[in-house]
Specification:
The complex is a heterodimer of chains A (296) and B (261). Chain A is an alpha+beta fold and 296 residues long. Among the domains of chain A are: 77 residues, Orthogonal Bundle (protein kinase ck2 holoenzyme, chain C, domain 1), CATH 1.10.1820.10; 86 residues, N-terminal domain of TfIIb (Single Sheet). Helices cover 25% and strands 6% of the residues of chain A. Chain A has 8 helices and 7 strands. In chain A, the strands form 3 sheets. In chain A, strands 1-2-3 form a 3-stranded antiparallel sheet, with helices on one face. In chain A, strands 4-5 form a two-stranded antiparallel ribbon. In chain A, helix 3 packs across helix 4. Chain B has 261 residues and is mainly alpha-helical. Chain B folds into 3 domains: 90 residues, protein kinase ck2 holoenzyme, chain C, domain 1, CATH 1.10.1820; 71 residues, N-terminal domain of TfIIb (Single Sheet), CATH 2.20.25.20; 67 residues, no CATH class. Helices cover 40% and strands 7% of the residues of chain B. Chain B has 9 helices and 7 strands. In chain B, strands 3-4-5 form a 3-stranded antiparallel sheet, with no helix packed on it. Chain B is elongated and about 75 Å long. Classes of the chains: A alpha+beta (296), B mainly alpha (261). Chains A and B meet through strand 3, helix 6, strand 4, helix 8 and strand 7 of A and strand 5, helix 7, strand 6, strand 7 and helix 8 of B. Bound molecules: zinc ion (2 copies). The site of one zinc ion (ZN) has 7 residues of chain B, from loops. The site of one zinc ion (ZN) has 7 residues of chain A, from loops. Chain A: Tetramer of two alpha and two beta subunits. Chain A: This is Casein kinase II subunit beta. Chain A: It holds the Pfam family CK_II_beta. Chain A: InterPro entries: Casein_kin_II_reg-sub_N (IPR016149), Casein_kinase_II_beta-like (IPR035991), Casein_kinase_II_reg-sub (IPR000704). Chain A: One of its GO terms (molecular function) is protein serine/threonine kinase inhibitor activity.
Chain lengths: 296, 261
């Protein structure tokens, strides 16, 4: 059997990754693909599975492919590679390969002004292929964006998957430090320096979206959000309120962002489940859990 | 009205109105066509002489009453041209908050000339240019999204280099006050990253806190009898449930956008 190292120039994989618009992809190590365990379940999703796999690994097909089928096999190989890629980037090796791209700003950076060019992480909102194209996650504003070039408009989000961004941030705490170092300032629309009245249609309606706890009251409120959204008390003292009808002058009360609780803090919550490396997770609509493997 | 033509630069022979030439320059897509009557009314230029010399000559150049004298040294001509562009842009900031200017910008907004919000949940809401300062040479132009109430850097480096003072701090608010029906119904979705289908605790916690702030806003609006339903401009849309199949949610979205039109 022929083997290739990943830096050999003319493998199918390196060709795929250097194609126009494929710059978000890393080269999956052939050893990863050769291990059948890592491909569990893909045979039932990808047509021409065997032939596609042979193509990806630059192996002579066991049975000759009908020339009419060649474009179909090529297409299947791209789908198969994308799905393997989504699994590979969750491994230690894959995470590190992606980290190199992250540091080089290969995925672009957040266009939000206050995010100050925070680097993006690619993300899929769905793990099934063919649902939605790739989106970009910003760890600073905790939001997702469309790629700014049409060249990424046909890259399937499932080739990066729903879990990668979260795992990536857990793996590289430096990202959290970059977030902490950034401003928590928010934009407020004004006319000649005056804020818009709350009754106007363009008055503040989504200031909560970018808000961060800024004073003792709000930090306490955040603590109360540990497991669920607390009831709103009627006589709530809206000190330094978010929704923007009070004055701005509470800024001197800003708590240093470093006081924000750090990752992996112990919350001894019974409802929480914990992943093996200490990541605290919660019950979501975990449709895809059974299908994914914990390979880190 | 003077109908002399402005020769755009020494090499090119074809001539056109100065303003058309300016607007046709690559990178000037955000600017609208300022009425010549507005530019030639000295009252509208009050105070601009603190930023640029020879305002009178520059106005004549912009309004095609006078051409840049070809006999002058290249450097002098270049300075005059640059100053004319600068003055036009400063007048532009004042013009676009007049009724005429707002209507011209409305046309450009409808054209998508300022681009669309890159945020996924804003579903391509058109953006509006904004300055963070009304003083020139402080900060480059940003784009305001009326859906997420946030500001973004322009996509192209050419646009990112434009002075924000050429649009000013008040323009988007004036625009949306003048055309309130254009204020979109706000998306209320908050993204929370997941690992293997499970939300990450710290992120889920801050999402819950933000949802709490949203609930407080809703309560406040209700107590003041301010309308904010999903059929009211500036209202709050119903959150789209996560993992709802795209086919399901897109049919809902189509219905919503139809009812808005
Ligand atoms: Zn961001
Ligand atoms: Zn937006």
């Amino acid at each position: 059997m022929e083997t290739y190292t990943s830096d050999e120039p003319d493998t199918w994989i390196s060709q795929f990754c250097t194609q126009f618009g494929h710059d978000y992809f890393v080269e999956v190590a052939p050893e990863f693909i050769e291990d059948d365990f890592n491909l569990t379940g893909l045979g039932s999703i990808v047509p021409y599975y065997r032939q596609a796999l042979d193509l990806i690994l630059d192996m002579e097909p066991e049975t000759t492919v009908d020339s009419n089928d060649l474009p179909l096999v090529e297409h299947a190989a791209e789908l198969l590679y994308g799905l393997i890629h989504a699994r590979y980037i969750l491994t230690k090796q894959g995470l590190h390969a992606m980290a190199e791209k992250y540091e080089d700003t290969c995925f672009g950076s957040c266009p939000r002004y206050y995010c100050d060019n925070m680097n993006f992480i690619p993300i899929g909102r769905f793990d099934s292929p063919g649902v939605e194209t790739v989106r970009l996650y910003c760890p600073n504003c905790n939001d997702i964006y469309l790629p700014n070039s049409s060249r990424y408009l046909n890259i399937d989000g499932a080739f990066f998957g729903t879990s990668f961004a979260g795992l990536f941030m857990k793996m590289f705490p430096e990202i959290n430090r970059q977030v902490q170092a950034r401003t928590k300032e928010q934009f407020r629309l004004k006319i000649f320096g005056f804020k818009i009245h709350e009754t106007a249609p363009c008055g503040p309606r989504v200031q909560w979206l970018r808000a961060t706890p800024r004073n003792q009251n709000q930090l306490l409120e955040l603590k109360n959000c540990e497991f669920s959204i607390p009831e709103i008390k009627d006589n709530e003292d809206d000190e330094g309120e978010i929704n923007g009808n009070g004055n701005d002058e509470d800024d001197d009360e800003i708590i240093k962002d470093t006081e924000r609780e750090s990752d992996g803090e112990d919350d001894d919550g019974d409802e929480d489940e914990e992943l093996d490396d200490g990541i605290v997770v919660e019950d979501g609509n975990g449709d895809n859990v059974s299908e994914m493997m914990s390979i880190v | 009205m003077a109908s002399q033509n402005y020769v755009s630069d020494s090499e090119s022979e074809y001539s056109e109105y100065w303003i058309d030439w300016f607007l046709g320059n690559k990178g000037n897509e955000y600017f609208c066509d300022v009425d010549v009557e507005y530019i030639t009314d000295r009252f509208n230029l009050t105070g601009l002489n603190q930023y640029v010399d020879r305002v009178g000559t520059l106005v004549d150049i912009i309004s095609d009453r006078q051409q840049v004298n070809e006999d002058q040294p290249e450097e002098v001509k270049r300075t005059l041209e640059d100053n004319a562009k600068f003055l036009y842009a400063l007048i532009h900031a004042r013009f676009i908050i007049t009724i005429r200017g707002l209507n011209k910008m409305l046309e450009k907004y409808r054209n998508g000339d300022f681009g669309f919000c890159p945020r996924v949940y804003c579903k391509l809401t058109p953006l509006l240019p904004i300055g963070l300062s009304d003083t020139p040479r402080v900060e480059s132009v940003k784009l305001y999204c009326p859906n997420c109430e946030d500001i973004y850097n322009p996509k192209s480096t050419r646009h990112a280099a434009i002075d924000g003072a050429f649009f000013g701090t008040s323009f988007p608010a004036m625009f949306l006050q003048t055309f309130p029906e254009l204020v979109p119904v706000h998306s209320t979705d908050i993204f929370t990253p997941k690992i293997f289908g499970f939300q990450i605790h710290d992120y889920a916690k801050i999402t819950r806190w933000r949802s709490l702030q949203k609930e407080k806003l809703i309560k406040d609006l209700q107590s003041k009898n301010i309308e904010f339903d999903e059929n009211t401009p500036g209202g709050l849309a119903k959150p789209v449930p996560e993992y709802e199949g795209l086919s399901k949610s897109s049919s809902k979205r189509n219905r919503a956008s139809k009812s808005r039109n």
